[in-house]
C-alpha cells in the first residue's frame, strides 16, 4: 500500500524541485509561472501540482512538464514520476502550501553562485606552488594575482552575440589548449564591453581544466607598479623570475603602458620568454595593435603574431539577454517590459547597462517599489543627458498628485495588465478582482473618497463590498513586502508618494 505524503513535507519537496528547475527556466518565466504553486498531493507515483490559474496551467503544461517530471523523480528518488496539473483558484501567497517564489529564486541564485565558486576552486593546490618563490616570497605582497576562486566572471555567464562571438570563440579555444594556438590572444574594444570579463573567465576556465597551471592576471598599472617597487627594493630578478614561471599571463588594458619605456622593455622581455616557452599570453586593449602608436613598435608587432579579436557594443537582443542574466544572478525580478525598455535605451556600454540595473535594484530594495518604466526612465535620462527615450512618454508630464478615481484606474490598469472595462465589470477573475480592489484601496486611503462614492464610481458596488476589499488589501500589505512594492509603484506613478 502506498502512503500519501504528509502536507508539510510536500512543501519542502516542491522547494527542492523548484531549486532544480531554477537553472533551466528563464528567470522571468520562473517567477511568473511558478508563483503561487504548490504540491496538492503525492500518491503512489503521481504528483499533483496545483497552479493558480488556467494561464499558468497551459504554460507549465506546454513548456515545463517534462522538466518538472525529471526533477521530481530526482527529488523523490524514483525512476519516474508522473506529474499532473490541477487548477486551484484558492492558491495564493497566503496559502500555507504555497512556496514564496521570489525568496526561493534568491536562494537558488546564491546557491548557483556558491557552486560556481566551488567549481572554480582548484581541487588540489599544486604542491610545487608552495615551494615556489613567487607564492611564498615577498613578491606575493604585490598587487597582481594568481587567478583564484573569487572571480564572478566565467565563460558561462558571458552572453554571446554577433558582436563578441569571435572573441568568445577565441577565448574558448585558448582555454582548451593554452599556449597552443592563438598566442598571443589580443582582445580589443571600447570601455565596458566585456574585455576584462572575457579575460578573467578564460583564466578560470583554464584553471578548471588544468588546475596545475599557474595563471596570472594583472592590469597594466599593477604591472608597472610592481616593476617600480621591485626596482626600488632591488628585487627585479625576483620579479622576472615570478613572471617567467607563469603558464598563462593575462595583461589587461595594455594601452596604459604608453610612454612607460622601462615597463615596456620589461614586458617585451617577459613576452618573448613566455612566448618562446609556448606559454599563453592574453592581452587586452582599448584599440587594435596598429593604433597603439605610443607603444614601441617592436612590442606592437609581436601582438600581431597571434589572434586579434574585438568586442563591440551588442545589439538590443544581446543586451536584453545580458540584463536577464544579471537579474538572475542577483535574484531580482524585472518585467520583460522593463528589461526591454532598459535594453533599448542604453547606448554605450554594458557597464552602463549594469549601472541602470543597480539603480533598479536600489529602487526595489530601498524604496520598496517594483521598478517600472516610469521609475527607471529618469535614471536612464540622467545617464543619457536627457536624450529622448524610446518607449517612454511620461518625461514631460508634470508630477502632480492624482485626484480622481479615473487616474487611479489608468495606472492600475497598466500595472496589472487589466482593462478599465474589466475593472468596472462583474468578473471575479482573480487578477481583475485584485486590480479592482487596489483601485478601491488607493481611492479610499490616498484620495480620501468615501466607500459609497467609490462603490458608485466603480460600476455601482455596495458600500460593504468596498469596505471588505479595502480591508483585504490592508491585510495583504501587512503580510507581503512584494505586494507593498507593487502598490507603491502604482502610488508613485500617481504622484501619491
Ligand atoms: P571592459 O573590460 O571591456 O571595460 P568589463 O569586462 O569590465 O568591460 O565589462 C563590464 C561589465 O559588463 C562587467 O560586469 C561584465 O560582466 C559585463 N559584460 C560585458 N559584456 C558581457 C556579456 N557579453 N555578457 C555578460 N556580461 C557582460
Ligand atoms: Mg576592463
What characteristics describe this protein?
497 residues, 6-stranded mixed beta sheet, 3-stranded mixed beta sheet, 22 helices, 54% helix, 9% strand, elongated, binds magnesium ion
Detailed description of the structure:
The protein has 497 residues and is an alpha/beta fold. The chain is built from 22 helices and 9 strands. It has helices at residues 7-22, 27-33, 54-76, 101-120, 127-131, 133-136, 165-176, 195-209, 220-232, 236-244, 261-276, 297-303, 316-330, 336-345, 350-365, 373-383, 405-416, 420-424, 430-445, 451-457, 463-479, 481-493; strands at residues 38-43, 46-51, 82-87, 145-146, 185-189, 215-219, 248-252, 280-285, 307-311. The strands form 2 sheets. It has a 6-stranded mixed beta sheet with strand order 4-6-7-8-5-9, with helices on both faces. It has a 3-stranded mixed beta sheet with strand order 1-2-3. Magnesium ion is lined by residues 195-196, 252-253. The site of magnesium ion (MG) has 4 residues, from helix 8.
